[in-house]
Amino acid sequence: TSGSSAVNGYNEVSVIFMLVALSPDFSWSKEVQAKLCNVFQLSKFRPLQRAAINLSMSGKDLFLVMPTGRGKSLCYQLPALCSKGFTLVIAPLVSLMEDQLMYLKSINVPAVTVNASSTKEDSKQVLAGMTDKNSPFKLLYVTPEKIAKSKLLMSKLEKAYNMGLLACIAVDEVHCCSQWGHDFRPDYKLLGILKRQFPKVPLVGLTATATSNVLKDCQKILCVQEPITLTAPFNRPNLYYEIRFKHNEDCTHQIAELIRERYKNQSGIVYVFSQKDAEVVATDLQKRNILAQPYHASMEPSDKSLVHQRWSSKKIQVVVATVAFGMGIDKADVRFVIHHTISKSIENYYQESGRAGRDDGSADCIVFFGFADIFRISTMVVMENTGQQKLKNMVAYCQNVDRCRRAMMAIHFDEVWNDDECNQMCDVCRHGNDYITMDITKHARDVVAIVEMASSMDEKLTPLKVCDAWMGKGPAKYRKTIKVTSLSRVEVESIIIHLLLHGYFSEDFSFTPYTTHFYLKLGRKAALLKNGNHSITMKMRRGMSHATVRVHKFSRRFHISCASAPGFFNDSSKF
Ligand code: ADP
Ligand code: MG
Ligand code: ZN
């Protein structure tokens, strides 16, 4: 029976199924492979994707536990394209669905939704399509509320089921079923009806939550008899995570030093923000005698593959790349991934940094955390539904000085975590209590007053202007009213970031036809500062005011104990 005899999340039955599932010889295998390349434009599967697809196409019920960003969606989207009828997808948020629908539209996969904001006309068309033998869409996204509340939808599903047109049911963020999960949604409790009404349709539950009691709970709530659980290991014990403050002038210089000294003759990636940055930083590194080349989306395909090839065969040492460099990278011995600019989310960072050390040898992941970069990215992701929140999570990760970086990632991905597992493989664990707790209430009042004053003069200030003004470098007309600070630039920046992350400031975008500007305005908590008793503290890295980053000497060789998960399911280059 499932669950009870599980070792590392797999019981014996699962393992046998898995071995079968990994086989490339199913009647659908050719079609699946072809659609992977032609529709999704991906060169190959990530770990567990093929197994998940084969299992659900064999009619098995499945829970798929994978860190965010690893590609769970493909595991139901691809089978949907290869099946008769359509796949029903339950997702918790309309914004998540819209992101997915936009993506699917861009690759010409017919997908639709019915939700509270659909027009009558749209809903009617979707409902009609459900029982249309020609399947006008392959994926139907709905919220759990819709399943719970719309009798019409349920009766259409019933009809589609009887016609053999309901291919699969995917429950995204399946941990929402359980009260033990971090994100309980009462309407998920009612989804048991699906498996009771449509017992022959395979159900796939997807989540980044690994705890077995949550999964057991979900299994019960969804009325799934004997699901197979596939779990992708999340922690990368051989990667060392480090954040450094970025000082624009010498960031490239520091990167060059690192590459020359610490990573001599070793391959790596430097991720940058824009195509222009890729060109500029690559040229700067070349000037410092480092074999580096740029890689970004506007390059000719032949040039791109040439760079990739040269790097793979160690003819060049470093690729200076935008996020366009990712697909199809399977180099195992990447010893460093340096972020010249922070990633736009922790999910992205996990993915990008995760390209290091695939051979299980030790590798470093270093982020240069720069103030101005935050706002460059913020305006770039302005149209994405969850873009600002994701960016703030990334910024909080960088700003953090007292929690193990792995612990933060684990919490973000809702993984169980035990602090000893880091083995000092992050800067926080290695350098311990290297921070001070500062009362910044007075500073907060001063800087909030600057933004308030500007707005009373009908002016908007960018974060950089706020820094300048606060440090006494702003226009003369401000100087009369401003209390100039004696804090260092880094401290000023850190405090502004802290206030933004905690809602004392918020973002005020202004759109022109050419660009988007980021201004600071007062946040919902700014008014609290009027209260004399309100106080704000923040943790700051010690000695931060002494400008540059401290160079810590440490031995780079560690004995890494092997991950406890069975080898063949590890995130290794074998897949
Ligand atoms: P999750 O739901 O697990 O958080 P997503 O399904 O949203 O992750 O996928 C995250 C990203 O990974 C997407 O950009 C997707 O295109 C990409 N991706 C998925 N599968 C693969 C693959 N086999 N190779 C390369 N990229 C992939
Ligand atoms: Mg997802
Ligand atoms: Zn740590």
From TrEMBL:
Keyword entries, A-Z: Acetylation, ATP-binding, DNA-binding, Helicase, Hydrolase, Isomerase, Metal-binding, Nucleotide-binding, Nucleus, Phosphoprotein, Zinc
The protein's required cofactors = Mg(2+); Mn(2+); Zn(2+)
Say where the protein is mainly found. nucleus
Task: Describe the location of the Helicase ATP-binding domain by residue ranges.
Answer: 53-228
- MF terms (GO), sorted A to Z: 3'-5' DNA helicase activity; ATP binding; DNA binding; four-way junction helicase activity; hydrolase activity; metal ion binding
UniProt subcellular location:
Nucleus
Q: Looking at the record's lineage, which domain of life comes first?
A: Eukaryota
- EC number(s) recorded for this UniProt protein: 5.6.2.4
Q: Which GO terms describe its cellular component?
A: chromosome; cytoplasm; nucleus
Report the SMART domains cross-referenced here. DEXDc, HELICc, RQC
Domain Helicase C-terminal per the UniProt entry, residue ranges: 254-402
Could you tell me the Gene Ontology terms of the biological process aspect for this record? DNA replication; double-strand break repair via homologous recombination
Q: Which SUPFAM superfamilies match?
A: P-loop containing nucleoside triphosphate hydrolases (SSF52540)
Q: Which residues form a coiled coil?
A: none
Annotated family: Belongs to the helicase family. RecQ subfamily.
Q: NCBIfam families, per this entry? A: recQ_fam
PANTHER family annotated for this entry? ATP-DEPENDENT DNA HELICASE Q1 (PTHR13710:SF105), DNA HELICASE RECQ FAMILY MEMBER (PTHR13710)
Q: What is this protein called?
A: ATP-dependent DNA helicase
Which species is this UniProt entry from?
Sinocyclocheilus grahami
